Amino acid sequence: LARAAVAEREATQARAEAAASAGEVATAAEARASRAEARTVAAVVESNEAGERADAMARACKEGERRAESAEVRAAGLGAQAEEARALLLAAARKVAAAEAARAEASAGLAAAGTALRGAEAAAATAYERADAMAAVAQGA
């Protein structure tokens, strides 16, 4: 009977130790689970933040693409305006060359007219001299 009592006490003590050990194991497991849950929550938060950053980057990329397309359109318009300006400059250069040619022609015409005028003045002077000479002869006769 004493052995049974000792065995029962040992069994009770073993059960108490097992329960304490199981409690420690359960507490440790709960702590690990709690830490794992906290890491999971942190990972989810970090993932959400990364997703938000990726969305913001995608929006910025789309805005950059839109601006680049707008700049390309403006550049094409400026290119067309530059071509038009070049054509206008060429036309103006042709008009200036034509005006210079007309000026040179007019200058040559003026020189010829000046020469003709000097010739006419000389002829008129000669005619006046002859008329004076004839008048003198007529008066002397």
Q: What topology does this entry show?
A:
Elements: H1 2-140
Order of helices and strands: H
Structural class from helices and strands? mainly alpha
- Rg over CA atoms, rounded to whole Å, is 59 Å
Largest sheet: none
Helix content: over 70%
Unreliable sequence segments: none
Total beta-strand segments: 0
Work out the oligomeric state of the chains in this entry. single chain
Summed over residues and divided by their number, the pLDDT gives a mean of 91
Distance between termini?
A: 203 Å
Shape: rod-shaped
**Proportion of β residues?**
under 5%
- Number of contiguous helices: 1
Task: Provide an overview of this structure.
The protein has 141 residues and is mainly α. It is 99% helix and 0% strand. The model has no long low-confidence stretch (mean pLDDT 91).
Task: Give the key terms.
141 residues, 1 helix, 99% helix, rod-shaped
